[in-house]
Design goal:
Radius of gyration: 24 Å
Bound molecules: protoporphyrin IX containing FE
Distance between the termini: 71 Å
Largest sheet: 5 strands, mixed
Helix content: 40-55%
Structural class: alpha+beta
Shape: globular
Strand order of the largest sheet: 1-2-8-5-3
Oligomer: single chain
Strand content: 5-15%
Length: 492
């Protein structure tokens, strides 16, 4: 009878078949480091093969484990991941050396093996491209000069205001049903952020349930342990089928805007004042548009939703901060004007709350992996060519050497100045810094501001009796392990 293996078994079988090759790689890497270069950064001593087995059984490269390890090994660490070098920076000084002093040489992108593109496609089609490629430079220019300029963001302000107003109307209906009906705040915010984005990109709502399913699929692929990331020579085999799965999801996602794209090309009707018009007018091909929109959606939705959700949880569990923000919102009366676009510039305490959430709960806690184009020196250690380089933004945001009472939610620390997240202050790096800094930063902050301001201007929120926010919320790990169900009551 034919025997079938589960994916873990397949991984282990391939792994043991590959042992002789791994041994040669290990020997080669030992020889390489007996040179005059400064040593690799300190880190846990491990034999690459054992480290791989350990990693497969206990995936320990999340931001929390890395933060603990850095307390033993210091602000710049080296870890063997299979045949790959991983470098982790965990202090503002180390981050500055990675993202500023060595910005050029360390601004390659570490592209996971599950990406459904050949290296040539990556370099000509997507944001995962190396920062030396003409395509990536062009994308950044288009983002900077057209898609996310102050003017473009002003244009999309109306869309954000409309979608926020739809969300408020939906909650208002629920709040009047009586009996304290709870709203799934995360689900509702996700829907709002998706449609704020889709309308800025191509002026249409999308099927949010279908979209959520796609993003969930992509999230699972990225968090799966992929043997091909540990041993890139296995990449072509796609043993776990992750690349195939990702390709399937990508193609489904492109179908969402295909009819819109076709119609605009057919009629050459470019009067919508949105991203798609701009991209068509600049001569982008269909494939480039598909990849760019996919990258903007996958980069922007969960991150923005998470910041809104965690700001709400922090405010609900920190009543003094909630009271101050409510006071600011009611004094500014931002939703009372003639124009339907609220003026969010008048809200310094809101802005301080968002910064405080980004400090404690950055949604990309290790940023995205960078890659060393060439070997270089960081803090008197060698970063080998092709090493993956991570910055532990999460650990930096709670470093007691940098922040007073780091585990307290205290927006006041940002009220009269303090650090900003725009890439110049290396203690607050939620959006990264240097040439790879998040291109969607301003759009993200505008979405967060208007959603939080709307939720708190129109409603008071409380948790249902059975839901004990303080018990469910773990600020130390940034985890909230339940749907965020809250009861809205219209403010007087
Ligand atoms: C609060 C929300 C967000 C946070 C915290 C965030 C954070 C980040 C971080 C840390 C990076 C990696 C920086 C690096 O590697 O040095 C990044 C990259 C990126 N983000 Fe965001 N992001 C957010 C929202 C958005 C939005 C709304 C968009 C799109 C509209 C977006 C699009 C991208 C893209 C395309 C990249 C890749 C840039 C490149 O490789 O050149 N992000 N983001």
């Amino acid at each position: 009878m034919a025997q079938s293996f589960d994916s873990q078994e397949i991984v282990m079988i391939i792994f043991f078949l590959a042992l002789p090759l791994l041994f040669i790689i290990f020997k080669k890497s030992l020889i390489k480091h007996q040179s005059d270069d400064p040593p690799l950064p300190p880190g846990p001593k491990s034999w690459p093969i054992l480290s791989t087995i350990n990693h497969l059984l206990h995936p320990k490269t999340d931001h929390i484990s890395l933060s603990h390890l850095s307390q033993t090994y210091g602000p710049l660490m080296h870890i063997n991941l299979g045949s790959q070098h991983l470098i982790v920076a965990s202090s503002p000084a180390a981050a500055l050396e990675v993202l500023k002093a060595n910005d050029r040489v360390l601004s390659g992108r570490y592209a996971p093996a599950s990406l459904p593109k050949t290296p040539a496609q990556t370099d000509t089609l997507s944001f995962w491209a190396d920062s030396t490629s003409a395509h990536w430079k062009n994308l950044r220019t288009v983002c900077r000069a057209e898609l996310f300029t102050g003017k473009a963001l002003e244009r999309s302000a109306r869309v954000r205001a409309e979608k926020a107003a739809e969300m408020v109307a939906e909650v208002m209906v629920k709040s009047k049903e009586g009996g304290g009906v709870a709203v799934d705040v995360e689900k509702m915010v996700f829907e709002t952020v998706v449609n704020m984005s889709s309308n800025a990109y191509f002026s249409k709502d999308v099927d949010v349930a279908q979209f959520a399913e796609m993003l969930r699929g992509i999230g699972e692929i990225f968090t799966a342990i992929n043997l091909s990331d540990l041993y890139p020579f296995l990449g072509v085999l796609d043993l776990q089928g992750l690349r195939r799965k990702y390709m399937g999801i990508s193609m489904k996602m492109w179908e969402l805007w295909k009819p819109i794209l076709e119609e605009r090309r057919e009629r050459m009707d470019l009067r919508h004042n949105d991203f798609l018009d701009t991209l068509i007018a600049r001569g982008f091909g269909d494939e480039q548009i598909n990849h760019l929109l996919e990258d903007l959606f996958t980069g922007g939705i969960h991150t923005t939703t998470a910041v809104i959700k965690k700001t709400m949880i922090e405010l609900l569990t920190t009543p003094t901060a909630m009271a101050k923000l409510k006071e600011e919102l009611s004094a500014a009366a931002i939703f009372d004007g003639q124009d339907s676009i609220p003026d969010l510039e008048k809200l310094p305490y809101l802005s301080a709350c968002i910064k405080e959430t980004l400090r404690l709960h950055p949604p990309a806690p290790l940023m995205l992996g960078h890659r060393a184009y060439a070997a270089c020196r960081v803090m008197n250690h060698t970063v080998p060519k092709n090493a993956q380089v991570l910055v532990n933004v999460w650990a930096i945001g709670r470093d007691p050497a940098v922040w007073e009472a780091p585990l307290e939610y205290r927006p006041e620390r940002f009220v009269s100045g303090g650090a900003d997240f725009k890439g110049n202050d290396f203690e607050l790096l939620a959006f990264g810094a240097g040439r790879r800094i998040c291109p969607g930063m301003s759009a993200a902050v505008k979405m967060v501001d208007v959603v939080v301001a709307s939720l708190l201007s129109f409603f008071d929120w409380s948790a249902p009796h059975h839901l004990h926010l303080h018990q469910l919320w773990n600020r130390e790990t940034s985890q909230f392990n339940a749907p965020l169900l809250l009861i809205p009551t219209p403010t007087k």
